[in-house]
Amino acid sequence: MNDAVPTTKGTRVTALVNDHGTVLVPGIVLGLTHDTARHRLQVLVRLSSGTFRTEEYLTPATMSTGSIRHDYLALPGAKLRQVWTDVALWDLLDVEAGLRGPQGGDAVRLTTDWYEANAGDIGVLGGFVDQPLPGEGPITFNASTFRGPSQNGRIVVQVSGGPGSISTPLAELTKTGQPIQLPVWQWRNGIPGRGRAQPYTVTVPLWDWTPGGAA
Predict the structure, then answer these.
(1) Where are the domains of the chain?
(2) What is the gyration radius of the CA atoms in the chain, in angstroms?
């Protein structure tokens, strides 16, 4: 620990917290406040229960405000960063901190019956991974979900199935703070063809949707 941690909002860190014992968890920097005696770095973390909590890490006011060093904070290494990426923890923190909204590939859970879909059914947002949607997006239930590289290198999510919406306002989606595993597929070795579909699973943020009304 004790890396120089940037105080910029959205910086991804590892943090030692008390969660039924001292544990290492991913965190997102929310910002820095200070008075004449010390700085307070606020870091959003997600506990094992699935709840979020803001931790404060104190340092002397003589320390730089651009980055700070603290025994309980560090920058994640490549392997740990990837582990937490694979289980969507960075995405969940970004959503909770207001740094990320619904994106292509995210999962959507119905809160009420809708056409041939039932309350509790899981749908998938179409679009591109890691790309904000322009205020609205398509949601498909009973989905067969292609998730793979497009010609421009971005990861595209194309969904077939039904029922589905063409342009659901993102304001109708509410965060749940929970991840979910989705079955998806891609072309083996990137080459399309009969029998070349390669299934796999991804973990993504889950949103709730009440059709026809903002949450």
Answers:
(1) 4-96, 107-209
(2) 20
